[in-house]
Amino acid sequence: EAAIAISNLCKTYAGGKRALDGVTFDVPRGQIFGLLGPNGAGKSTLINTLAGLVNKTDGTASIWGFDIDAHPRNAKASIGIVNQEILFDPFFSPFETLEIQAGLYGVPKAKRRTMELLRAVHLEDKAHAYARTLSGGMKRRLMVAKAMVHSPPVLVLDEPTAGVDIELRQQLWSYVRSLNAAGVTVVLTTHYLEEAEELCDRIAIINNGRLIANEPTRELVGKA
Ligand code: ADP
Ligand code: ADP
Questions:
Q1: What ipTM describes this predicted complex?
Q2: Is-contact 131 139, C-beta < 8 A?
Q3: Which superkingdom does the taxonomy of this entry point to (predicted)?
């Protein structure tokens, strides 16, 4: 069974913009899967549909076998999503941010899990600082830790390295690789082909709301 299965997904926004126009693909379990496409292609709309933030117009989607309409809470429990926007309270510390998130998901041993995550993203030293005092890179790592708090089998990163310097990019990539090596299926959106090439086992290309390619990276790059 696929980690994510998407069938005929359509989204027309109020105002008439057709952001997704019948998108169908599976993300196989265990992979790092890249969703590539230019700005405005529909990548965020697709991710936000999986997150339950956008109401699709038509089609179906399931996460780890759970249909997002029929079993929304199971679907949500199976996925961690890192949005483009930085989303946490600037006056809570990283420790508090993660502990609260753990509470929301009913994660057992919340303090222990929180410390484990802070170590994994190298934020132990900042555990009790105001989140607003973190650098951009640290904030992004905190976002990833927050998405992983409930140990979902699938992690989705929406444009993880947009506006991020090369050093931080390397750090994020190595963390993503280590999560994948530990069994997490990873989906990332990007408009950088090089990023998708370097990281992903498989790449799907979306343009104008339609899927125009979906192949193992090796084959896709071989054709270019
Ligand atoms: P729903 O997902 O419940 O159908 P919409 O996302 O269509 O709701 O409604 C949000 C409103 O916000 C839209 O009508 C649109 O005018 C506006 N909006 C938000 N983001 C954008 C954007 N990136 N481009 C154009 N309009 C936007
Ligand atoms: P990407 O993430 O690939 O840049 P998006 O999914 O953000 O693409 O946007 C796809 C299209 O839908 C764009 O034309 C964008 O302007 C439009 N769009 C995105 N959000 C909204 C919204 N809330 N309301 C109306 N149009 C939107």
A1: 0.76
A2: yes
A3: Bacteria
